[in-house]
Each structure stands twice: as structure tokens, then as C-alpha cells.
């Protein structure tokens, strides 16, 4: 029984050590990726041409022509940092909120509860 507890403790410790590193890992197989700050500024990116922050909790990310958003692309938005209230992120293709139903744009919405927008930093990847 002690061995099982030691093994479980070791696995949990390893997971705690490896989790932050995975969050900062490069995304070599992604079509596009970006790290966006709470104010909408682009920290770092690959195949992203522009990012803007039209309103509270709404971010628009434009990708270059090498990224195929019309196929079966997997789009993931992951929160960065800690906040007083839990945040959830969602994404939308061809968003009206970003203007003119642009085919190269992804909207990222951040909210604290049902339809209450709140700013947040995030990673965005398109695979």
C-alpha cells in the first residue's frame, strides 16, 4: 500500500512539474498560433497577421493566407494567468463582431458568467 501511495505521489509531482512547461510549449504542427495579452496586444505568434480588441472580452485574430479555416481545423483557446473569477473562452469563425464577415478571422470571447464579458490573456492555436 505504501508503494502505491509513493508511486501516486510521484506521478502527481511529475504532472505538477510538467504542466507549466506544456503550456509554454511551441506548436510545431499547428497552422497558426498566438499569445494574446489582456489588452489585445500580440505577445508572440506564427501565421497571425493582426489582433485587435474591439470591446471588453472580445478579441479578433486574423490569420495569413496559409491557414485553412474552411476545412476541419481544430481551434483551441487556452487561458493564461489567474483571475479573481473563473473565465471561460469560446471561439467563432467569420465573426460579425470583427467586421464584414472576414473569412480569415477568428473571434475569441472571454466571459465570467453567462454573457458577462471580461478581458483575459490567452493562447490560440489552429491545427
Label this structure with key terms.
globular; 127 residues; alpha+beta; four-stranded antiparallel beta sheet; 9 strands; disordered N terminus
Task: Provide structural commentary.
This protein is an alpha+beta fold and 127 residues long. The chain is built from 1 helix and 9 strands; from the N terminus they run αβββββββββ. The strands form 2 sheets. Strands 3, 4, 6, 7 and 8 form a 5-stranded antiparallel β-sheet that branches. The longest helix has 22 residues, at 2-23. Mean pLDDT is 82; it is low at 1-25.
Give a brief rundown of this model.
Helices cover 17% and strands 42% of the residues. The chain has 127 residues and is an alpha+beta fold.
What percentage of the residues does DSSP assign to strands (E)? 35-45%
Radius of gyration: 17 Å
Give me the secondary-structure category: alpha+beta
User: What distance lies between the first and last C-alpha atoms, to the nearest angstrom?
Assistant: 43 Å
Mean pLDDT: 82
Question: Shape, please?
Answer: globular
Number of helices: 1
- Uncertain segments: 1-25
Number of strands: 9
How much helical structure, as a percent, in the residues? 10-25%
Main sheet specs = 5 strands, antiparallel
Give the topology string: H per helix, E per strand: HEEEEEEEEE
How would you summarize the topology of this molecule?
Blueprint: H1 2-23, E1 32-36, E2 42-46, E3 48-55, E4 58-63, E5 75-80, E6 88-93, E7 105-113, E8 116-117, E9 121-126
Antiparallel strand pairs: 1-2, 1-9, 3-4, 4-7, 5-9, 6-7, 7-8
Amino acid at each position: 500500500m505504501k508503494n502505491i501511495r509513493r508511486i501516486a505521489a510521484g506521478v502527481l509531482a511529475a504532472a505538477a512539474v510538467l504542466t507549466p512547461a506544456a503550456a509554454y510549449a511551441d506548436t510545431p504542427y499547428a497552422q497558426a498560433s498566438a499569445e494574446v495579452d489582456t489588452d489585445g496586444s500580440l505577445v508572440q505568434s506564427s501565421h497571425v497577421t493582426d489582433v485587435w480588441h474591439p470591446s471588453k472580452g472580445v478579441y479578433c485574430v486574423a490569420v495569413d493566407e496559409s491557414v485553412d479555416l474552411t476545412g476541419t481545423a481544430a481551434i483551441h483557446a487556452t487561458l493564461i494567468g489567474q483571475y479573481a473569477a473563473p473565465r471561460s473562452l469560446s471561439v467563432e469563425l467569420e465573426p460579425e463582431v470583427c467586421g464584414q464577415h472576414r473569412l480569415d478571422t477568428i473571434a475569441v470571447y472571454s466571459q465570467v458568467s453567462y454573457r458577462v464579458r471580461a478581458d483575459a490573456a490567452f493562447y490560440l492555436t489552429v491545427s
